[in-house]
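Researcher: Checking consistency across runs. Here is Aminotransferase-like plant mobile domain-containing protein again:
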Amino acid sequence: MALPSLRENLHTGPKDASLLTQQHNHISSLIWSGQDRLLRARQCYFPPGPKPHESILTMLKTTGFGYVAQIENVNIDISLISALVERWRPETRTFHFPNGECTITLEDVALQLGIPIDGDAVTGTIPSDLRGRCRELLGAAPPKNTWDDETLELSWLATKFEKLPNDASMTVVKQHTRAYILRLIGGLLMPDRLGTKVDLMYLPLLENLSKVGHYSWGSAVLACLYRELCRASKTGSTEIGGCLVLLQAWAWDRIPTVAPPLRTLSDDQASRGWGFPLARRWSQYFKNTKENVRAYRLALDQLDDHEFIWTPYASPTVRRFIPEDPGEVCYAMVPLICFGIIEWHHPDRVMRQFGLRQPIPHPPTNMDRVEGVSMIGRAKWNVAECGTWINLWMQRRDRLLHGRPFHGQLDQNSDYMRWYLNVTRRWISCEGARVGTMVFGVRNILKLAKSETTTNPTITSIIHTCNEMINVSQQYYQPLPSKNWQFVPPAKENFRAGDIKNVAYKQPPPPPQPMGYYPYSQSYNPIQYKPPPPPPPYPSSSYHVPHNNAPFPPSWPHNSYPGAPNAVVTAKPGTASTTYPPMVDMKSVPQRRPPVPASTLAPANAPAPFMPYTETEDEEESEYDSEFSNELYG
């Protein structure tokens, strides 16, 4: 069958456009029409040279940047990055894969990079005389040809602070440490548009090195990465910035079919800290061949349920590298702040990543007003402009996710999957639709034949599956790209972190140190029920559950979510109605919903989030999803 006929016969989605409202400007529209795109990565690595002085490394540990400084030589596969961006949806800040939504969370940042995620928001008032602050905090003012009032050339930092004198005073050590942190920020964690400069707005936050660990650098990194993913997903974009090491390590740990084979570390190496942060395990990998984005796109289009690992950090082979639990902030539904960049953390849309059952989520937080905020003219940025978002971040421990344990795969006929397949963009390319329809059709028929589902198959459903398979008469297959990587042992020379050459330490790294500044006295258990936090304002529109054509939640009238003008919401049948005022402007504090009644709370002795979970019976799934959705969102 010719490709034009295939495009006409297959509906790639979304069938219900109430969720993915920006499809007309999304890169997947161009890919489906037959065009292609390979992004350019804005990522800067340090030039060859010796590793930082031991005094600098010691001080980096106290600031929360000690772990990330050990990530070396991670080769970025821009073809894989481009394929992932095609499945990133700016409407939800999540990836849309065949088996559901997933995203990079604060848990991934803490474990993959080892930087603090708890603490104050990374923001503040930017001084007008940044060059004078450089002279004060770095001990030298940059030449005029190396800075432009707001950004500073990374090459000048590398040259000026290349070597620490042996008789350096503590003041000089602190100056070199600040310069090294700026290089980490501009070259690895939050690269600018070119990947060759660092923004000087971060420098005042480094004045007191003993308080640097008080900031949530992890949430700032995630905010910048979210923003870059949203920009790169648009049709006119040709490049991407942000922490691509984090994005690639996240994908490799969760999708083994697109990852190189990971070398095994001994228990002795694990005890020495060689496996943490987790992104460090992928150091020294180089590709044998150049894969194209089309191969990765096809692999993601036909991704099966068992080919995506929802909880990779629960594996004993990975847990042995983690020095401590990253803390309860991982479960917080809060804004992510990096000065003028504000994004939203949506763990409630990816609850399976925390070992919890996923109900149909609420409409995502509307970030249209802040999405257009540019960091151009940052010297005029005032902390008061994002006061509402800072207040929400400060309430992070009152906005924690809660849920019920779940282990396994959701049935295709579950309420969530029926809703998801109706609102998502299922296929990215025609090749993926051709292969995916055949592969998923055969898998579904095999599941029915093997009685792997409790849903009674009907002749109509089988005929529908077979008709979809008939519409794609040609099967297309390419080998997966994960076999073309190899581990290259590090050379004997010593280089800086992030060098394009091989890196080796003269001595084994020290045992793991606590992540960040704040100690975690106890682990957060999301299974212990608490009244849910007040959600942010939602758009007045609602999307539908395809089951019985009923709006979600069933007890809410159509187009009557809290925030809609004069909306009236009944929390549960038989209870009094609650009238909400008209939706306020995004500048003000968001509306709040009534808390969940105490009678719906789960027992306090529920298992910890990283312990094995018991799968809920499929026949109870439909009834449970409707009940639990009301409990989660009120």
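Researcher: Does this match what you'd expect to see?
Model: One thing to look at in this run: The CA atoms of residues 385 and 611 lie 42 Å apart.
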